[in-house]
Amino acid sequence: MANSAAECEAMIAACKKANRKLMIAYRIQYEPYNRLVRSMVRENKWGKTKYIQAQNSQSSANPDHWRHKKALAGGGALPDIGLYCLNTSRFLLGTEPTEVFGYSYSTPGNPLFKEVEEVMSWQMRFPGGILVDCITHYNTHDSRFYRVNGEKGWMHLNNAYAYQGQQLQTSHAEGPAKMQNQITISPVNQFAAEMDHFSACVLEDKQPHTPGEEGLQDQRIMEAIYQSAREGRPVKLPPVDGTDVFRGPEPKDNA
Q: Is 253's pLDDT higher than 80?
């Protein structure tokens, strides 16, 4: 959303003062595969969720690209592509992390990472003992997936954060039998889905599903992750009670 929580707060305040709607383009929250996994998580399809593993990595070879300029990007792999792991985990669970622990590294002498981090690995603790383990990297082959591990099964979404090509696999136990399934959904243009939703919010005067407050919360968590990586210790987050606290009404199906 921005380079700092303060900038996010200023954007939210400016839109409220001008009586304008502000929506953050979190396309994953409008994409059918991710929405299906969220439904399965919320319904405890394979029992209670115990932990989530998430990864979003890619390679870049241009040190002059804006992604590698801290003043333009705000950071490296974390705010650019690691954000998908962070926001999607919050979206799936509906609750907010209570603690983060981060680790950052950049290869010495690599001109790509003079200003921003190459890799960020972090863990988030959620209410109920749920752990979310994330890693994002700016110097590896493309890898975009997450796996939700439940008491009696798991859901694995490959290409989870990609524009297309999602592949959803599930595995669960039925008595002594182990069942594995590949789930296929008709593709939807993610950009059109989020644009249609925002258009409907304007026409119907409704709050967007992913308002500025949703982006602000991610920024606050990322700043805590950076603090943890600098200080080498876990960082507590302010408690947030409730479910989907920072989100607006649900979008229409395929909206």
A: no
Specify the CATH number for the domain of residue 228: 3.30.360.10
Q: pLDDT confidence of 61, banded at 50, 70, 90?
A: confident
Structure letter (DSSP) for residue 45: B
With tokens 């981090």, the residue in question is: 117
In a domain, 206, yes or no: no
In a domain, 252, yes or no: no
According to DSSP, the residues that pair with 218 across neighbouring strands are none
- 238, 245 in Cβ contact below 8 A? no
In which domain, by residue range, is 124 found? 26-189+214-236
List of E strands, 19-175:
49-59, 99-105, 119-126, 130-137, 139-150, 153-158, 167-174
Closest by CA to 101, choosing from 252, 231, 251, is 231
pTM recorded for the entire structure: 0.95
| Structural domain contains residue 14 | no
How many angstroms separate the CA atoms of 78 and 144, rounded? 14
With a cut of 90, say whether residue 42 has pLDDT above it: yes
Domain count, the chain: 1
